[in-house]
Specification:
single chain, alpha/beta, Metallo-beta-lactamase, Chain A, 3 domains, 8-stranded mixed beta sheet, 7-stranded mixed beta sheet, 19 strands, 32% helix, binds zinc ion, hydrolase
Length: 428
């Protein structure tokens, strides 16, 4: 730039003043458009911009107090990183542009999911506090400099523990979290990291649609601002890429599933990230039936103290013919979609050896499951039958069961909205 202004000065003696004005205007234009400080904003943020376009009212929904923080210059100091990452793996770009890749990181008894499409990246949860290095290093090993979207599904440590480190270490497009907050140190750490970056939290609404490259994703939950059980405040996301679809449940439990069902939004998905680590309080039969997934991923710690995943859920998945992939059995799971076919890399990592808490075998360690549905243990033994297409449940031998007969526990049938058949009069 300095050279061109020198030239202007040199030429001053030989040219008319009108021409000088013209040259200066052109120079100013070049500075503003070409060598502008933030060309990265204009080039790289198409997905962010488009999503805001899709949801002009989206930013109005931002309501957490920490969002009222004056912009700091911190986030402007990172473009270098991003520029580097965009240039680093150009050979693979043409292939990657046609693929959606979902990595379920083995963070033990926790969740962390990296999604990439083209050069766009999104992270759903970041494991426990102790996993922050693992998550950050994994992202760096992939050459990632910017995460277009970061989702903290809900305020529990096993989901947002590593989020502060991620926010500190990467350029971030948007941070999305539910409105329901927590008073834990872990939650505060995340808010401080966001505040220090001069960013705002986006609290999206059900039905909001975002884009990640060629993939689209929709918010399905939470449907309320506050829940007694913080798991139900989980942001639930359904993503589509070509003909493939994926649903990420966070720790949403049956109450949230029922609310999602009542909205009648599309939830059918090829793959479901099972809610709450396979706990018996999530993945109700009716919900699973409506999702009608071919594949399920359970993010769960080896020998965890909660008894996750619940054998009830594993049996239910089997009953519905869903193929299950578990991080405690496979380690990190990499799923690739070309828009038609979904492929699994089951050898992406070793399995994380995560020692369970010493007192893990105490009789009430199952409490997280039992407390939320105490009746279950009492009527667990009663089996009734449902069919593929009706909302009634039946006693064994009912004539309605000729075409299909899927065993289900009475508790689950009732909880999933099935009503007793009037012909066979099943147990109630
Ligand atoms: Zn939780
Ligand atoms: Zn959890």
């Amino acid at each position: 730039m300095r050279r061109s202004s020198n030239r202007n000065r040199d030429c001053r003696y030989y040219i008319r003043p009108g021409y000088l004005v013209q040259v200066l205007l052109i120079t100013a234009f070049i500075i503003l458009s070409g060598c502008g400080v933030d060309s990265r904003e204009s080039n790289s943020d198409r997905s962010t911009v488009m999503s805001e376009g899709t949801h002009a009212d989206n930013d109005n929904s931002t309501s957490i107090d920490i969002t009222k923080i004056p912009q700091s210059s911190h986030s402007l100091n990172t473009p270098q990183k991003f520029v580097k990452s965009q240039q680093s793996d150009t050979i693979e770009n043409s292939v990657l542009n046609d693929q959606l890749q979902i990595t379920f990181l083995d963070v033990g008894q926790a969740d962390s999911i990296l999604i990439s499409q083209g050069q766009r990246y999104m992270l759903i949860d970041a494991g426990n506090n102790a996993d922050e290095e693992l998550v950050v290093n994994y992202l760096k090993s992939k050459g990632i400099g910017k995460l277009d979207y970061v989702i903290g599904t809900h305020a529990h440590e096993d989901h947002i523990g590593g989020l502060d480190a991620v926010i500190n270490d990467f350029e971030i497009g948007k941070v999305l979290m539910p409105k329901q907050i927590s008073t834990t140190k872990t939650f505060e750490d995340v808010l401080v990291a966001i505040k220090n970056k001069g960013m705002k939290v986006t609290t999206p609404k059900v039905g909001d649609v975002y884009e990640l490259g060629k993939a689209k994703w929709t918010i399905l939950a939470p449907n309320k601002e506050k829940y007694e059980n913080i798991n139900n405040s989980s942001l639930v996301v359904r993503m589509t890429f070509g003909n493939n679809s994926f649903i990420f449940m966070g720790d949403a439990e049956e109450l949230s599933e029922r609310e999602i069902l009542s909205n009648n939004l599309e939830i059918q998905s090829d793959l479901i990230k099972i809610g709450h680590h396979g706990s018996g309080s999530s993945t109700t039969a009716l919900f699973l039936k409506k999702v009608s997934a071919k594949y399920a991923v359970i993010s769960v710690g080896k020998d965890n103290s909660y008894g996750h995943p619940d054998s009830l859920i594993l049996n239910r998945l089997k009953t519905f013919g869903v193929e299950v992939f578990r991080t405690d059995e496979i380690g990190t799971i990499v799923v690739t979609s070309d828009g038609d076919t979904i492929k699994f890399d089951k050898n992406a990592s070793a399995i994380k050896e995560q020692a369970p808490p010493v007192e893990s075998k105490a009789p009430n360690t199952h409490s997280s499951v039992v407390t939320s549905s105490p009746e279950k243990t009492e009527i667990k033994e009663i089996t009734v039958y449902i069919t593929k297409n009706e909302e009634k449940y039946h006693a064994a031998g009912c004539s309605y069961l000729r075409k299909s007969s899927i065993p289900i526990e009475l508790f689950d049938a009732k909880n999933s909205g099935y009503t007793p058949c009037s012909r066979c009069n099943p147990p109630r």
